[in-house]
Amino acid sequence: MEYDGDATIGTSDDLADYAPFTTISGSLLVESSDCDDIFLSSLEKIGGDLIITFNEFLTELSGLENLKEIGGRLTIKDNDSLSEEAATALRQQIEGADGIKGAVEISGNKVEEVIEQDLEGDVVITQDGEDHIYKHIKTLKGKLVLEGLTLHHAAFPELTKIEGDLV
């Protein structure tokens, strides 16, 4: 089902209006919304631009899991609670499918602290995405626990030593 024209989302009620569409022929603007995710799981293609900006409460982009093509530019910027990693993951998802035809700008989103040293104490990872803040650790002077039903993958590319247990 195709929505003909541009779409704007500013509230969670707006999401419901666009939820059934697989295609938006124009651009999609998500701005100053009260949403924590953009639940448009049917959406596969946007003919114009996708602009996600100034969303204070937005923490996830997983609701766009089926988006495969953007005919214009992708802009994800100035979202206070959205991590750069979530924005980059959406970009990679779309680039890996049919692609993004225009320019890409990802900036001004939440930057989480990255630990770049040896770490004393235990690290517990219970869901995907939590491992990124530990990606520069070389030595863990405690135990590393990986657990939980939502954990499918974790990577520690620089970790060479765990002085405690690996659970």
List the helices and strands and how they pair.
Elements: E1 2-3, E2 7-9, H1 12-18, E3 23-24, E4 28-31, E5 45-46, E6 50-53, E7 69-70, E8 74-77, H2 84-96, E9 99-100, E10 104-107, E11 119-120, E12 123-127, E13 139-141, E14 144-150, E15 161-162
Parallel strand pairs: 1-3, 2-4, 3-5, 4-6, 5-7, 6-8, 7-9, 8-10, 11-13, 12-14, 13-15
If you had to describe this structure to a student in words, what would you say it looks like?
The protein is α/β, with parallel strands linked by helices. It has 2 helices and 15 strands.
Give a short synopsis of this structure:
This protein is of the alpha/beta class and 167 residues long. 12% of the residues lie in helices and 29% in strands.
Structural class: alpha/beta
SSE string, helix = H, strand = E? EEHEEEEEEHEEEEEEE
Overall mean pLDDT stands at 86
DSSP helical segment count: 2
Shape: elongated
Gap between N and C termini, in Å? Answer: 47 Å
Number of DSSP strand runs? 15
Quote the beta fraction: 25-35%
Fraction of residues in H or I helices:
10-25%
Tell me the strand order in the biggest sheet: 1-3-5-7-9
**From the alpha-carbon coordinates, what is the Rg to the nearest angstrom?**
18 Å
Task: Note the main sheet.
Answer: 5 strands, parallel
Question: Which key features would you list for this structure?
Answer:
five-stranded parallel sheet; 15 strands; 2 helices
